[in-house]
Records
---
Amino acid sequence: MNVLVIGANGKVGRHLVRLLGENDSHRVKALIRNQDQAEALERLGAETVIADLEGTVDDIAAAVKGSDAIVFTAGSGGKTGADKTLLIDLDGAVKAMEAAKQAGIRRFIMVSARHAENREQWPESIKPYYVAKHYADRLLEASNLDYTILRPGGLTDDPGIGKVATGDDSSVSTISREDVAAVVVAALDERQTYHRAINLASGSTPIAEAIRQG
């Protein structure tokens, strides 16, 4: 599968590019905003292509053309304001969906956030981020794409353990970025994950088994 990673230069994105680069079943292309990011991602096994989520849908569609799947794990980051959050985490995600349709790509994986679907659970301090994730997820669910929405808990930089918990009843509220990336790889061609939103936390179930259970 030819996999296009949007947000490849982020912390989850870099783990994902590396794991896909090591996987003989997939080829990985990293969508980047500027050429300075290319060398490090190419060392991880990716082909790189330049496009800006604040640019046009046509430009993004040209960059993703030829891919079999898109993974959206981009974000404006904690150091930007609410304006950039809306432009990247919401409008950028929607542009990526529109570009996927334009380029004839049906498989789309969204890395969202735990409780994005439930307004009562949104932390006041980062509410614009949750607003963006909420509506990006809703628009993806309303699309005709073969989507999977992954909703991880608090992200850590701990090494991945290859085991997760899904569902609403996990007593653990965090997960490593490396394990989130591993879930993406496992979900890519797992049809059981199509048209589903899956909560993620660190757990005791091997990733491949956990994503089939939901």
Note: The chain is about 35% helix and 25% strand.
---
Amino acid sequence: MAEYNLLQKKILTDGVIKPGNVLKVDSFLNHQIDVPFISMLGKEFYDLFKDRQIDKILTIEASGIGIASLTAVYFQVPVLFAKKSAGSNMDKDLYTTEVKSYTHNKVNHVVASKKFLSEGEHILIMDDFLANGCAVEGLIDIAHQAGAIVEGVGICIEKGFQGGGDRLRAQGYDVKSLAIIEEMDAESGSITFR
């Protein structure tokens, strides 16, 4: 690749590769949030999807909330985040799905209140990472249960070598990732982008 984009450069300077194909970007994306930087990524997502009708952004807690919120500023729409458990203060009228977490190697029962997602709403699904695609598939399931229209999927970092994004694209979803990692090596610290 001749020139790296904004996110690829940040991954190369601040990302840390751990054994097991884990990329830590917690210094700027999914633990500590570099708000000015992530806001620039939000603008990039706006530019990618601005020709679509977007009524709401749907993400999953917790790491997707930052990028979804900073993107929503540009679209001027609300963000709905699916919760990984129904707390005692949530309505009982919920859309539910199961999502297997690659990072934590467990199945989460993910929920979203029916009062915040309606039939015919145009939805942009967003998340910080896409690996095997389970989280996005869960969010698509929730959107479909509501009768909402999935206009696209915005992902900060896609692990292309795990195939989730390619599978979703083959199903007809417009998946746009700002950085697609083709391979990475914890021992050498090298990352190859698609």
Note: The longest helix spans residues 35-49.
